[in-house]
Structure formats: structure tokens, C-alpha cells
Amino acid sequence: MSAAPGTLQRFCLVAVAWVSASCTPEPVVIDVSEAEIQERVEARFPVETREMLTTVVLSKPDVVLTQGSDRIGLKLDVLVRPPLVGPFTGTLTASGQVAYRYEEKAFYLVNPRVDDLKVNGLSDELLAKTRGPIESVATHYLAKHPVYEFRSRNLKEITAQHVLREVRVANGVMQAVIAPPL
């Protein structure tokens, strides 16, 4: 049974990188910029979902990497169509910790939460009723769709797919730390 084309080459690259990393006392850090994450996230919007008779549209994501935070933030435009009234527009800010799913070679937000929600022209009573569906749509969508995937663009990404040790947000970038097994 023969290997798929490129499999041997990829294996050799990973082996060379692994040996190189083994000889290096310090872990290797791959920085993923806010702009790179922004490009990937923008492609996944707009999103329209109906929850509890309320239609919610999330659009125009803006990635926010805050110094000193371990979370990736997103500012989104939100359009809300509750039953019999509206539509109403506003903004939503959400964030989540970042985690890597090895099987998918992708980074996801875990424990996403809505940090701020403003909807123009919506009474406090109606905002209280629509807040649940809006937050539900936002947090479920953010938890199920990656914010970044490795695409085997270079040796570091190919290596990271196999020996990733840590993911963190620091200095305004998402950092993937690769190191050989101990």
C-alpha cells in the first residue's frame, strides 16, 4: 500500500523540524497577527440565525487582541428582528479563550461570552427579552467555528500541527508555542 503523494515529504519535514526543535533549548513561538486572524474570521460572516422567534444577524467582525488578556475578542454588528417589531441594529462585543483542536488543525474560542451588547432603539424590557437569543446565537457560533487554521504554509506551521504545546494571546498576537516532547 503506497502513501498519498506528499505524505513522505511532509513526514520528512516534520522529522527535520522535530529534530531541530529537540536541539533547541527554548520553545519556538509562531506569532499569528490580529490581521491574519481578521482575514480568516471575516470570511465566516455574516451569520443569520433564528432563535426563540427572534432573528439575529451578526456581521462585520473586528478582531481584538487586548494586551494582558488571554482572550480573543470580536466586535460585531448585530441586527435583531424580534416578533412583530424592529428590526433593530447595534453592536456586540464577545470574547473567548483560545484552544487548539489537533484533529482539525484549528484554533477555536472556548468559553465564549458576550462582554457588551448595545441595541439602538430597543426598550429595556425588549432588550431583556432578546438578550438571551442574541447571546445564545453569538456564543454558540463562536464556539463551533474556528478563528484560525494551520494551512501548512511553512515549516513552522507543519511542525506546529504535530508538536504544539501551548496557545496564548500575548503582545497583541496569538502565539502558538511548539516544543519537542519532554
Key words describing this protein structure:
182 residues, alpha+beta, Bactericidal permeability-increasing protein, domain 1, 6-stranded antiparallel sheet, 42% strand
Textual characterization of the structure:
- By secondary structure, this protein is α+β, with helices and mostly antiparallel strands.
- The protein has a single domain (29-178), classed as Super Roll (Bactericidal permeability-increasing protein, domain 1).
- 31% of the residues lie in helices and 42% in strands.
- The chain has helices at 7-23, 34-42, 124-144, 155-163; strands spanning 28-33, 47-51, 54-65, 71-81, 88-101, 106-119, 148-149, 164-170, 173-178.
- The strands form 2 sheets. It has a 6-stranded antiparallel β-sheet with strand order 2-3-4-5-6-7.
- α1 crosses α4 (155-163).
- The longest helix is centred in the last third of the chain and has 21 residues, at 124-144.
- It is elongated.
- The protein starts with 6 loop residues before the first helix and ends with a strand.
- The mean pLDDT is 79.
